[in-house]
Amino acid sequence: METHNKSFFFLFFFPLMKVIWMLYLCVLFEGTKANTQFHTLQISSLQPASLCTPSTASGSSKKQSTLEVIHKHGPCSHLTQDTTTTTTTTATASPPLSEILTHDQSRVESIQSKLKPNSKKPNNLNEKKTNIPAQSGKSLGSGNYVIPIGLGTPKKTITLIFDTGSDLMWTQCQPCARSCYTQKDPIFNPSLSSSYSNISCSSAQCSLLTSATGNDPGCTTASTCVYGIQYGDKSFSVGFFAKDTLTITPNDIFPNFLFGCGQNNQGLFGNTAGLLGLGRNSLSLVSQTAQKYGKYFSYCLPSTSSSTGHLTLGKSNGGAASTSSTVKFTPFATSQGTSFYFIGIVSISVGGAQLPISQSVFKTAGAIIDSGTVISRIPPAAYSAMSSAFRQQMKQYTSAPAYSILDTCFDFGNLTSVSIPTISFVFSGDQRVDLHPSGILVAVSSTQACLAFAGNGDAGDVGIFGNTQQKTLEVVYDVAGGKLGFGGGGCN
Length: 492
Fold this sequence. Notes:
Layout: H1 2-35, E1 38-42, E2 66-71, E3 81-82, E4 90-91, H2 97-114, E5 123-124, H3 125-128, E6 145-151, E7 156-163, E8 170-172, E9 197-198, H4 204-207, H5 209-213, E10 215-216, E11 218-219, E12 225-230, E13 236-249, E14 252-266, E15 274-277, H6 285-288, H7 290-293, E16 296-300, E17 308-313, E18 328-331, E19 341-343, E20 345-350, E21 353-354, H8 359-363, E22 367-369, E23 376-378, H9 380-393, E24 398-400, E25 409-411, E26 417-421, E27 423-427, E28 431-434, E29 441-443, E30 448-451, E31 453-455, E32 463-465, E33 474-478, E34 483-487
């Protein structure tokens, strides 16, 4: 009888214990796995510091063909420094977030109107010259990040907004025949550059302006080609289409670079000298330097405005992630037009759980990646699902009123740290990109923060993967290869 009981014990008890142990391990694993689907962060990390802390990531080190990227409103930017007195240098106040978001919305509406199927044909600049607004418009809303670049012979350094959603490079030029806004750098004087020359109206180069600016070029009585570019908020630049020597680094010099020499520029451009276009068009920096850089560039935007990032041109001398095996590539989607970089969004996950969003939601209007848009815009159905899931996983925190275009907001009161769900995107080619915490929440005050996304007003509006969601990622544009890459830890 005792032997029989022992047999029963070994036959049934040990297998049962094995099953219980395996279940315990599964629960333990799932619990550990669930914990990895949240970020714990200090509230203070969402706010920029008062002092500049340059990035220490290897991709931002000074390499050939690499430029430092700076937030134009942060302490690392000379654009914010007030040097009106000889004894002190102080930082000028940044515009409030509400103003930045208003300008961002103007930019988004401009992009979306251009990409609507029934958008208007290019305007004729000669016909519109008398109708160009005389008053100053609002801010361009063309991006927060700037780079220094050299122009002319001898080289003069100017600070330009870099923008993947634009093509033509332009800068304000003396003598400012009609109007120039206030900029920090000395305004470029073409008469002092031995390599400067205007483009004639009859040249084939002049005709390239139509696709790059959305306006047919004008012509002066001296047969000089005139460009004009107007933005969604009515700010604009008009001037001579010209060529001069562009200096990226001491070893990367490009003679006869085509650009706009602005004589009538209005709008609040954040004290910058103009804009550098990194779009697909033949007049963009990407295309005009293709022989050297092969239509390949990458950048990293810092997590806060008090740090720095980088813009690297070319593959062989690229930043840390441009040749890294950790970069995940997704093919560019079919482009509508020649400027924007279209990408395919497949799905979005919040807290490790994929949102129940039909593929057709993302395919209706498609999406672009844009360095100039601050807050990402996604289809209304996708945003509704994201907001609902995010709120559910943040239910332990107090809700706060909407702030401008941001409506999923929280009041963290006296808390010093919070736990927020991860957010990840899956792009075409089954490439998953995990967002940095600074790309998930945006601080609207010292105690309140909001989900850093906004829903489009219409399902037919193009989605935009904006610069807040790109923070700390090495974003690699292999334009010639038709693909976009994302690598983690591009800059601190």
